[in-house]
Amino acid sequence: DIMWEKIEKLLKEKTMTKNKLATLAGINKNSLIDLKMGRKKSLKFGDVVKIADALDISLDEFRKG
Questions:
Q1: How far apart are CA 64 and CA 38, in angstroms?
Q2: Which H/E stretch holds residue 55?
Q3: Tens digits of per-residue pLDDT, 24-53?
Q4: Quick check: pTM over 0.85?
Q5: How many CB atoms lie within 10 A of CB 44?
Q6: Of 31, 25, 33, the residue nearest 44 (C-alpha)
Q7: Could you report the per-residue pLDDT of 22-31, keeping only the tens digit for each?
């Protein structure tokens, strides 16, 4: 999944775990796991905003191909 690939790349760059991201973003870590495993194809917009804030990136990062 492209969304997960972008998140995973950013996590590696920032040496952050999925659990840390979920905590900082205030979202359920299962949402990230479901995205990684392909059980979810996307996240709610509000969660994407929280993830972008937690990673200290612009929402545009998720739009870039």
A1: 20
A2: helix 45-55
A3: 999 999 999 999 999 988 899 999 999 999
A4: yes
A5: 11
A6: 31
A7: 999 999 999 9
